[in-house]
Amino acid sequence: MKKDILYSNKAPEPIGPYSQGIFVSWEAQKMLYTSGQVAIDPATGNFISGGIREQTKQVMENLSALLNEAKSDLKNVVKTTVFLKNMNDFAAMNEVYAEYFGDSKPARSTIEVARLPKDALVEIELIAMI
Known about the structure:
The chain is an alpha+beta fold. 23% of the residues lie in helices and 27% in strands. The chain has helices at 52-69, 90-101; strands at residues 2-6, 21-25, 31-33, 77-84, 107-112, 122-129. The strands form two sheets. A four-stranded mixed beta sheet has the order 3-6-4-5, covered by helices on one side. The longest helix is centred in the middle third of the chain and has 18 residues, at 52-69. It is globular and about 40 Å long.
């Protein structure tokens, strides 16, 4: 399996910690598609308190747990979709998100939505190689 970052100087530079695209090649490779995750603490089943930073951290921990269960990790993520209740939270979400992905920036879309489950501020889903 091989994951390469797609970059073209003829397309806009990414404005955050994501890649323009990810090219994946494999032989009999498996993919993981997660459902959107919100900031629920799996130990208690309760929605966590706090703002966008705390919620983004919990969402990323939940996604990491799913990846670990599938014998993968964040460096194998090729695409995420971020749903924000308020685009004014973009910068703060982006900072936390960047801490988790580091140099392994997947392709990403970010969308402002009217409402999320549990009145969450952020929900993230992903696609990863296994």
